Amino acid sequence: MEQRGTLSPSPPPAWTPRTDPAPLLPDPRPYRVLGTDAAEKADPALLLELYDQLVRGRRYNAQATALTRQGRLAVYPSSTGQEACEVAAALALEERDWLFPSYRDTLAAVARGLEPVQALTLLRGDWHTGYDPHEHRIAPLCTPLATQLPHAVGLAHAARLKGDDVVALAMVGDGGTSEGDFHEALNFAAVWQAPVVFLVQNNGFAISVPLAKQTAAPSLAHKAVGYGMPGRLVDGNDAAAVYEVIGDAVRHARAGGGPTLVEAVTYRIEAHTNADDATRYRGAGEVEAWRAHDPITLLERELTERGLLDDARRQSAYDAAEALAAELRDRMNEEPVLDPMDLFTHVYAEQTTQLREQAAQLRAELEAEAER
């Protein structure tokens, strides 16, 4: 037994850092590739694929916005100006990986192979999701802010425990970083060293709230240090830079290095949704300044200067995008065949008592209406 008065070793102070914070800090300025010496090392085939997807995404946004005006969509959160974030991030994933999108990330889902109409089914109000998440390895488009982030951590942690070579990419807007789910997800991911990449698309506003009224941090990427993971800051309008940074983070996670928080600095050119009036909280001059840093323009300039894009190749990309828009328009103009009883399908593996009661009530009402 320990004698009274004997000194015992003191535990290490609680404030002692577990890791050196210096390697976790992001660069002082967003990382860029296009327009720099690093662009010469970029794969021409990759740049052309990114260009095709950007042009396609821009046209997709325009067509979906038009469908809201025609009453074919209930709402559409456009990602015009942010296409590089979505397309490049999705292409950086392997087929076995999982994508956890937010409500604005339809282009990421389409770039990953989801049928364009299926990406809009939720926004039309026809179905819970519109696609099979397991088939495409794309979680449901998430309307509640940041709730997809803990889900991504859970899936990635479970995959690692099972020995599956899987990385989860969780996408969120700057507004979502003000939600508790964001902080809980990053903390669990870092403690568990889960193979997750968090991509924050900082488009300047959480609806009408500018970033400066959400956080006083040097950048959102700096928040990574507080959880013990690397933070990366990238130009979100530079498709080649986003692809490189996300690709590095995915490989780091797959190799057992744990999570990374990436902040892509971009701008929301259009309103929050078709139900929003952005002129009430920002000026036209600010929007025009960002148009000069358009992701398509940046990539077109690089491809043209390297002799990889001529008028014929450019027109081919725009023709393919127009064909996509035409098919999307035709299919969304078809009247969907809906069964009200589908409200109760795919909610739980086994329906709860309340759901069974509600289903029975609705079935009785439908039968009574049919008889009348």
TrEMBL record:
Superkingdom assignment: Bacteria
Pfam families the UniProt entry points to: E1_dh
Gene: pdhA
Keywords: Oxidoreductase, Pyruvate, Thiamine pyrophosphate
Protein name: Pyruvate dehydrogenase (Acetyl-transferring) E1 component subunit alpha
Dehydrogenase E1 component domain ranges (all copies): 61-338
NCBIfam families: PDH_E1_alph_x (TIGR03181)
GO biological process: branched-chain amino acid catabolic process
Keyword Oxidoreductase: yes
GO terms for MF: magnesium ion binding; oxidoreductase activity, acting on the aldehyde or oxo group of donors, disulfide as acceptor
Cofactor: thiamine diphosphate
The keyword Oxidoreductase belongs to this UniProt entry's keyword annotation: yes
Annotated segments matching region Disordered: 1-32
